Amino acid sequence: MKFNNIKAIIFDLDGVITNTSEYHYRAWKKLADEIGISFNRDINEKLRGIPRKESLEIILGDLIIDEKEKERLMEIKNNYYIEYLKNMGPDNILPGSLEIIKEAREAGIKTGIGSSSKNAKTIINNLRLGKYIDAISDGYSVSNPKPAPDLFLDCAAKLGVAPSEAIVVEDAESGVEAAINGGFRVIGIGPAERVGKAHIVLQSFEGVNLKDFINPGSGL
Ligand code: BG6
Ligand code: MG
Fold first, then answer.
1. Is residue 181 part of a domain?
2. Residues 48, 97: one domain?
3. Best substitution site from 31, 81, 116, 195 to test ligand 1's pocket, by max atoms within 8 Å of Cβ?
4. Residue 202, domain extent
5. In ligand 1, which atom is closest to the CA atom of 47?
6. How many domains does the chain have?
7. Which pLDDT band holds residue 151 (cuts at 50, 70, 90)?
8. 23 C-alpha to center of ligand 1: Å?
9. Fewer CB atoms < 10 Å away: N or C end of the chain?
10. pLDDT digit string (tens) for 188-216?
11. Which of these three, 37, 66, 85, is where a domain ends?
């Protein structure tokens, strides 16, 4: 299938534009080892698209700790994560993503980022992507996390487009649900078990062009 009348594409960041999942894994793992709780890559997979605090709560499981201690643990994890982000540059953009962003802009389609991450702007700067992006909604923009549609609605409002005129690109199940809940057209990146509810599922943007998912003459 292909979409019609598209005026904007809103990209999730982690897992769509770049692969930060490994850095999140290493940072959470370091913290988990220090406080003596188990954490592995399977649990890390469940944290795709999930904000920092909810991620910590998933990792803690049945362990009950107070808010102040949660804040302290999140700060420790984030400091580890920020150290990993320092190694990140334009080479860390996933294959095909920058090409799709450039192609969209050349076709007059606006580009936005809709990411749950409070580090989104740092990552965009490290990837040198800022000049290609018209609007950013991040972990500071709204209070209801995905699967609520709020983050994508916030980005669409900044771009001045209706949800029905925008495609959301997501790699997380919660993100695909958020976009569908908001009335967006949705491209899922990854396995169908994870993003199968999206209108179109792609393994990646490698070798993909806009005309593969947008009808010519309707936005192109
Ligand atoms: C999402 C990631 O983009 O951002 C999640 O998929 C992460 O894994 C979330 O937990 C929050 O990130 P940050 O950078 O604010 O801790
Ligand atoms: Mg993601």
1. yes
2. no
3. 116
4. 8-18+93-212
5. 8
6. 2
7. very high
8. 10
9. N
10. 999 999 999 999 999 999 999 999 999 97
11. 85
Together in a domain, 40 and 129: no
In a domain, 122, yes or no: yes
199 three-class SS? coil
Q: Does ligand 1 lie within 6 Å of residue 117's CB atom?
A: yes
- Domain co-membership, 148 together with 171: yes
Q: What pLDDT is attached to residue 180? A: 98
Helical spans, DSSP H, in the chain: 21-35, 41-45, 52-60, 67-85, 97-106, 120-126, 150-159, 173-181, 192-195
- Catalytically annotated residues: 12, 14
CB 146 within 8 A of CB 49: yes
What is the whole-number distance in angstroms between the Cα of residue 139 and the centre of ligand 2? 12
Residue position matching structure tokens 């982690």: 14
pLDDT of residue 216: 78
168-194 pLDDT per residue, tens: 999 999 999 999 999 999 999 999 999
Amino acid at 188: G
